[in-house]
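User: Hey, quick favor. My workstation is busy. Could you predict this chain's structure for me?
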Amino acid sequence: MINILIVDDEVLIREGLKILLAVYDDLNIVGLCGDGEEAYVFCQDQDVDVVLMDIRMEKCDGVMATKLIKSLEKNIKILILTTFKDNAYITSALSCGANGYLLKDSSSEKIYEALKNVYLGNAVVHPEVLDNMINNQKDSSAHCYIMEKYGLSAKEIELIKLIAEGMNNKEISKVLFLAEGTVKNMISTILSKLQLRDRTQIAIFAFKNELVG
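Assistant: No problem, here it is.
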C-alpha cells in the first residue's frame, strides 16, 4: 500500500484526483493539502510515501515545498503534476529533489503508473516535458551561466524574459502568480544585480544574452 498526499490549490482538482486514484487498491490517499506549507506540516506528523503536487501555488509553491519536504525526509517521493512546461520550473523542481514531472493532461492510468514508479525509486518525466528539456538544453546552459555570473534566481530569469516580451507589471504578476508590489521589488533587485538603469535596459540585456529569441 502506497500512502499518497495530494497537494493542489484548486479544491476541485485535488478532490477530483482523490476520486480518480481511490479506485486503485494499492494506493491510500492519506490527505489533501491546499499549498506547499500545509504539505510540509502534514508530512511532519503523517506517514507519506509519495506527494502528488502542483507546482504553482500562491502561498508556497511546489518547488519550495519539495525543498522543505526533502529536508524533512529525503525518502518521501515527490511527483509534480502541473499544466506548466516552463524549463525554469522543471529544472528548479528536479534540482530540489522532485522524482517526477507530469502534466495534468495525463490519464489517471499514467498518473497511477508514475506514482508507482517514483515510489520504487524511478524517475518519471512526461514525454512532452522531456522533449522540451532536450530542445532547450542549450538555452538552459546559457541561463545557468547567466544565473551564476550575475547571481540571478530562476524566477528572476523568468521575469527578465517577460519584460523582454513587453509585459507590464500587472501582466507579469498574473503570469508569475505574484503581487504587483513583489514584481516591482524584484525588478529593483534585478536592476541592482545587473547594474542597469531601467526595464528597457533589462530587455536589451535579455536579447544580448539570448534569454529570448
